[in-house]
Write a structure and sequence with these properties.
The complex is a heterodimer of chains A (about 525) and B (about 80).
Chain A (H helix, E strand, L loop, with lengths): L22 H17 L28 H5 L6 H10 L4 H19 L2 E3 L3 H10 L13 E4 L27 H8 L3 E2 L2 E2 L37 H8 L5 E6 L5 H7 L2 E4 L19 E6 L2 H11 L18 H4 L14 E5 L15 H15 L4 E6 L6 H5 L15 H6 L8 H5 L6 H22 L5 E4 L3 H6 L3 E10 L6 E9 L5 H13 L14
Chain B lengths: L10 H14 L18 H20 L17 H4 L2
Helix pairs in contact in B: 1-2
The chains are: A alpha/beta (about 525), B mainly alpha (about 80).
Amino acid sequence: MSAGSEGSRPADEPPPQDGLVSRRWFVNRMAWVSSAAAAGTLLSPRPAVSSRRGAAMGEEAFATTVRPQAREDLTEATISESMTLLRSGTVTPADLVNAHVDRIERFDHLYQAYAARPTREDLLAQAGRTPPGGLDAPLRGICLAPKDNFYTADLLTEGGSLVYEGFQPNYDGTAVALMRAAGGLVVGKAQMGNLAGGRARVYGTTTPTTRNAWAPNDVRLSPAGSSSGTGAAVAARLAVAGIGTQTGGSVIGPGNAEGLTCIKPTFGRISLHGVIPLSYTRDHVGPMARNALDAAILLQVLAQPDPKDPRSLGLPPAPNYVLAATPFPGDNPAVRWPTRIGVWPGYLTASNGRGGSNERVIELRRELIATLERNPSVDVVGEVTMPDQWDELTSGALGGSHGDPTAFFMEELRKDVRDFADRLPRFLNGMLQSADTYVKVQQARNLLLQRMLTQLFNQCDVVLTSGTGPFDGTGLPAMCMPIGFDTDSTTGRKVPRGATLAAPPFGEQRMFAVVAAYQAVTDFHTRRPADPVS
Amino acid sequence: MPRQVPPTPTDEELNTYILTRYALLGIDISVLPESDEDAPMDRERLLANGRSILRQDVEVADFEIDPQFNLPVTHPAPFTAWTEE
């Protein structure tokens, strides 16, 4: 453990949830999810175990100070800062709405972050009906950008695809309903990759739409996908925060591309009811925000058991994420719990995890690790050893989910395969995968999860990694945060670079604590991209 | 008796298999262009992807999982929630 001041970390801090939950239980639970994927909800029409609501929002959610730039431009304020401004009475929900709609009307024809938006009048009317602020309605007046695969009763939900073109749900997905019940406002439905794959495009084509907020005038710099619009909207200050979905890196990817702080929580932690499905066993909802505290506030609102999604039931109640994301005071605040941080093999030699190398990214990663090593509660344990048969279990068909989306979309596939455009193979592949392969893929996934828990997370509590694939397939949580800037080799633009962390089941608190401590001594998460040139 | 290894299927044979499977399920891919790199999808790319998926099946079949492998069971077993035992 590094030398340094212990800060003010109390000795009696309750342990985080990752140390309280049986890992064996989680392995068994994920095996149940595999079974449920085949049987659907028929397997579990009602929860077999009780599910308690998560922790209430803590007072820590309110920012103790509000930056001057956030007072001058309300689109700059974080969720936490907006909560403080609203409570002080200096700002109203209508002020927040007008500030964001002004900016959207001025710039979104360039960013192309939104697929559908309510009118200013609709939003102001909704703002007038929001419940009184405070801890019961922490998102009061907060302008949010859910990805366009979340059902919304008042806005089209098209999933970035011709398959859902013109689709108007008659109810809100659970995640949207929870945000609205907490006072949040859907300022727009964010563009997304076709049926949750790739960057956002014109429906049915490969023509890109949404721009990266760090190069809004240059289409070549990708916003990543598939939660492209949410990432761009949050980075461009067209929304305070948002929610994306991740089946294979679709929250963490755009988060890193846009310099955001995002979390893909443990599988089932946020209900998937009212989300266009891709995979029953791999889909996750993930908050996308500007810092750890905002991501924690969103997760606190969203992490509730939902009788309409059995995958969200029977989990340990959500702990106090907001407290976990609140750094201790001091110049170098300790991570809230002593934490061993492992480093993925090749993390300091190959920047993109696929053999590519970028010296600046490597340099930023070294600086990140040096900063973490200076934290009095962190022990950077170095490169981890990978579990047995890692390559076999994480690559090719064994590491994928080829068959998952096919069953959901059979009717649409029969209607007209052209509606699926470039994503068609992904949706047809299930017809070519044999039953024995599907069974073996599920078995291998459980074997991989067991080995990750016993052979990887026995070495560390959190791991720095380049990609999230193995964590998506096994339902383990991951998070990203910005760690500096680089020059994009194609566009020559200054772009943010991020780091990805992953943890064992219910490791959200520990990741929030690490990211919050890092963000207390760095300011990359506060950097704002320049406005586009009209 | 020596083991007989059947010849590896050709691309054409796999294409026939894929198209038959789609047709059986009522999927019409004839609406796609035969080969057009400017189109979001064409039959040539679709069939190439399908062949790749089928060949990956062979890799999966080659991966051996101990038939005696079982996940460790929690104690008490979660089934007590149903059986009330």
